[in-house]
Amino acid sequence: MHAALAAAHGAAADGEVPVGAVITCEGRIVASAGNAPRGQCDPTAHAEIRAIRQAAQALGRDRLEDCDLWVTLEPCAMCAGAIAHARIARLYYGASDPKGGAVEHGPRLFSQPTCHHRPEIYGGIGEREAAGLLRDFFRDRRA
Amino acid sequence: MHAALAAAHGAAADGEVPVGAVITCEGRIVASAGNAPRGQCDPTAHAEIRAIRQAAQALGRDRLEDCDLWVTLEPCAMCAGAIAHARIARLYYGASDPKGGAVEHGPRLFSQPTCHHRPEIYGGIGEREAAGLLRDFFRDRRA
């Protein structure tokens, strides 16, 4: 999660909402990305989507059954859907997101009967730093 | 929808599940893509995601408020989430998807209170051809 938090700091430095994600495969980091929809001019460029795409490229396959995803914020519906498509084994996330999260909030995507893959899920990992980073970012933006 | 169906035929020819998507802006096609997770080695490479990324690149912005998306199959949760993030104005889709769809099935994403953008939605456009294409593809794959 330290690497995911570092990617989130990088996103903040680029003026993006500070969320970072890392994918590990057998304990080794195979992808790391910050949130970058503005910089990349791509509304799908959330940290999780970018990390999944990077990992799939690096490993040369579109299923990541032996990979874990670490992200500083509860994934939204788009990213939770991508995690299911990628068959990620374990999802570790930091801060919860009552407004946009889709794991423990809103559609609770992995609990839907139509969800075809549910990772093991661990929330609240590094939550304090992840949430603080987001709070500071939005406070500075309002200032 | 003819162009989206053509993109779906292209996906089938490449051995991918035949779904195609097109984005129009003021009546002009700005992006067109077929489903390609295997070919692109990218679990997020659904037709809708590819078309949204293409359109955002072409228009040089990450919000597509003046764009419509045409897709041959009811979008899944990942793609419906991306459509909301991209602020697509109107969504036209062909066949419904009781197994994986997230518009009129499963999480019904655009009806969730946490959904921050809901396009106008028109289902069943070119449904017969879109559904036939999928049926033929899965029949041939089982054969």
From TrEMBL, chains A, B:
It comes from the Bacteria. The active site is at residue 48. PROSITE patterns: CYT_DCMP_DEAMINASES_1, CYT_DCMP_DEAMINASES_2. Zn(2+) binds at residues 46, 76, 79. It catalyses: adenosine(34) in tRNA + H2O + H(+) = inosine(34) in tRNA + NH4(+). Binds 1 zinc ion per subunit. Residues 1-104 form the CMP/dCMP-type deaminase domain. One of its GO terms (biological process) is tRNA wobble adenosine to inosine editing. InterPro entries: APOBEC/CMP_deaminase_Zn-bd, CMP_dCMP_dom, Cytidine_deaminase-like, MafB19-deam, tRNA_aden_deaminase. Its cofactor is Zn(2+). Its EC number is 3.5.4.33. Pfam families: MafB19-deam. GO terms for molecular function: tRNA-specific adenosine-34 deaminase activity; zinc ion binding. Belongs to the cytidine and deoxycytidylate deaminase family. ADAT2 subfamily. Homodimer. Catalyzes the deamination of adenosine to inosine at the wobble position 34 of tRNA(Arg2). This is tRNA-specific adenosine deaminase. It comes from Stakelama tenebrarum.
